[in-house]
Amino acid sequence: MELGLKGRRVVVAGGSRGIGKAIALGFAAEGCAVSICARGAEALESARAEIAALGGVVHAASCDLADNAAIQAYMPAAAAALGGGIDILINNASGFGPSDDEASWESSLSVDLLATVRGTREALPFLEQGRDPAIINIASGSGINPAVRNPAYGASKAAVIHFTRTKAVALAKKGIRVNCIAPGSIEFPGGSWEKRKVDNPTLYNNIFNNIPFGRLGRPEEIARVVVFIASPAANWMTAQVMQVNGAQGMR
What we know:
The chain is an alpha/beta fold. It has a single domain (9-243), classed as Rossmann fold. Helix content is 45%, strand content 14%. The protein is built from 8 helices and 7 strands, in the order βαβαβαβαβαβαααβ. A 7-stranded parallel β-sheet has the order 3-2-1-4-5-6-7, sandwiched between helices. The model has no long low-confidence stretch (mean pLDDT 95).
């Protein structure tokens, strides 16, 4: 299918590894100019090089997405590097608060939720002038179902889902579509589920056995859905939350 994305300018906040990097690679493969940001300089440069190998414009900048001032500086810099605008914004960053303590709540709310809110706010002036503008927020199945192990993370992702639907309605008259992806458990080298496979095999196996598809997901499987939904091929889709999870939790 021709998705009509060639030449689009894409920002992926939290794009240096895992799902974010796969999304950036997916857009680059479609002929988009791509900007990514993250905190870790080494992973960021590795991702930039991998994206650049596909050809086209690629921009990468270090940005602490828990810091409002850093987002305010990054977004116009990304727009300038992409040729003076932004057509598609992907809010993917996660602080992943793993428990119910104060640090988990602070991390989840400041990155998973507030970085999404702030990134959207700072990108909006560019999106309003963009071509077929779209925002996609990455939530989680933990934001839909009870998250007993990580309530801070689950609550922040539930708020991202609500924010998505609210902004979709608010921005519809401006022609800006806003959707959300809720991935299931995704495994990739260096990711949390790969670590748990070694450190907590009981938990890993419980999750594994709760996925009727018979395996955990892969970052590129989320990326392909994101790229399609952001494209003009899906231009009547907004305010939606798509679960991409191999039927996880539906036994």
